[in-house]
Specification:
206 residues, mainly beta, twelve-stranded antiparallel sheet, 2 helices, 12 strands
Length: 206
């Protein structure tokens, strides 16, 4: 059991290496070629990952560092219900329903993971699928768009809490733009694009 309110991660088969150590105010966990199948049929197909987390102490904020390669997002989303994540992070994973293969990922943050005060990340993902968000009606607004979704994307990104950039490519995939068009799904044979954004408080420029 990885948390007081979590169901146990009961394993049917397991191979690879798993290591960890307790820090003065946190923990460190690493996996190498870890593969397993739970009794419920959830499968973790392998890859390497490392997570270091330290709790808040005095004026020092909670902070974490996560690194991974060859990570299966679909498998992670299935296993997330058994991992020691806060409720907000678990809800976001379920809402986005991610699938795809992470070739490389690095993410650092300070503050609670659900609302970090600062963060930075970079990585490469292929065959990415993210579910679109349902439009939420707003008073006085005729058409309120929902969160865009994507299917079959390859993304290379580099971002911080103040902005970032990404290179997007789609081959025989689709964009989902709920609330923007009568037919929200746009099938694409090929798409290439570069995206840059800046964040200043609640202001976002793209």
């Amino acid at each position: 059991v990885l948390g007081e309110r979590l169901q146990p991660l009961a394993l049917q088969t397991v191979s690879g290496r798993l290591g960890g150590r307790r820090l003065a105010n946190g923990f460190e966990v690493r996996t190498e070629e870890l593969q397993f199948r739970t009794r419920e049929g959830q499968v973790w197909p392998g890859g390497n990952a490392a997570l270091t987390w330290t709790g808040a102490e005095g004026r020092v904020l909670e902070q974490g560092d996560f690194r991974a390669d060859r990570l299966d997002l679909g498998a992670l989303a299935q296993i997330a219900t058994r991992l020691p994540l806060d409720d907000a992070a678990r809800e976001r994973i379920a809402d986005f329903a991610p699938r795809g293969q992470v070739d490389a990922l690095q993410f650092r943050w300070q503050g609670p993971l659900s609302a970090p005060q600062s963060y930075e990340g970079r990585g490469k993902v292929r065959d990415l699928v993210l579910a679109a968000g349902v439009p939420v009606p707003q008073a006085g607004v005729a058409n309120t768009p929902g969160r865009p979704g994507v299917r079959g994307a390859a993304v290379e990104f580099d971002f911080t809490h103040s902005g970032g950039k990404a290179r997007l490519g789609i081959e025989r995939g689709a964009l989902d733009l709920p609330g923007m068009f009568e037919q929200p799904r746009i099938d694409l044979q090929r798409l290439r694009g570069d995206l840059q954004w800046q964040i200043d408080g609640e202001q976002l420029s793209v």
